[in-house]
Amino acid sequence: MKRIQMADLVGQFKKIKTEVYQAWEEVLENASFINGPQVKKFASNLELYLNVKHVIPCANGTDALQAALMALNLPKGSEIITPSFSYAALAEMIIHVGHKPVFVEVDPSTFTIDVNEIEEAITDRTKVIAPVHLYGQCADMNTIMKIAQKHNLYVIEDAAQAIGANYEMDVSGKLKAGTIGHIGTTSFFPSKNLGCYGDGGAIFTNDDNIAEELRMIVNHGQVKKYVHKRIGLNSRLDSIQAAVLNVKLKYLDDYGAARKRVAAFYDEAFAGHQNIIIPKRQVKSEHVFHQYTLTLKGIDRALFKEYLMNYEIPSMIYYPIPLHKQEAYKQDIELPITMDLTENVISLPISTELDEEQLAYICKHVLVFCKEQTLAQ
Which among 2, 10, 3 has a CA at the least distance from the CA of 195? Predict the structure, then answer.
């Protein structure tokens, strides 16, 4: 049996390496390493795939978040509502640009922002709702957009873990993750569903004025060379990475299908188990499974993780410390669901390259451990 990996990037690369090498050769032959033809081609291809008016490539997903926040030109000290159960990049950038993250709960079954808590968190300083489409599916964007419209708020979607996912809007029909709010952002970190071979990111919008601001921001605030209209960033997707992304974008839906196949295998193995809660799917959202995350009940997670590692089965905990308990972002609030999840979630391998032998091996050992734990209690 092949070695099991959380993300088998080497195996994935081997299937597309001829195309990647050819794309790299084109970059090297024309020596347009910054903002070259491959970058423009990728932006155009991604616009077509997402059915969005503007894709602005940038250096990484964190820069994408920073640029999105800067483009709205919010008053200093604005409040931005976002979940605590997430990675730090969004909260980090909120504070960097002079605003305040307001942390709220997530839905315990979908792991995305609890829309029932958003309105209670709104004050006269609230300017943005920033949902994170965690683990591969969208938050309840129908409700979020209604709340935003009611209170005249912007919506920034962190779609880094759900790129390619479809969401069914009540009025406008099926839209892609990251294209529903005023601005969407993504990361092309190598392990993402659409990942490059280094760092990269992008910002999406259907708003022409916001797009103009974003293009200035990622290019030193320039409207044209040596003419600086505003303070900006130096944030560029290099042509080598764009070449990779142009190849991999063609296979993004295939990668999603492979992840769904893995998830379905896990679902069947663990459905109805008293100690394991499988990921719930949003009614309106497709799930593209950036992660397959279980919630454990009555199971010692540390022992479970150690047991799996003893059998060379990797696993990950996303996220062991919520943002409102981190020293850098600490807030004196009570978020019991978030706290429970940080203590009980664990993600299994969800690589596009996993085969049935590997999946059967993983499931067997998960179930054996749960049975042994139950008998020991």
Answer: 10
Q: Which residues of the chain have pLDDT under 70?
A: 375-377
Q: What is the DSSP string of 117-167?
A: GHHHH--TTEEEE--B-GGGB---HHHHHHHHHHHT-EEEEE-TTTTT-EE
Closest Cα to residue 56, out of 193, 183, 163? 183
Tell me the domains of the chain and their CATH numbers: 9-249 (3.40.640.10), 252-376 (3.90.1150.10)
In this prediction, residue 375 carries a pLDDT of: 65
CA angle 134, 137, 138 (to 5 degrees): 90
Predicted pLDDT at 373: 78
pLDDT value for 210: 98
Q: What is the pLDDT of residue 293?
A: 98
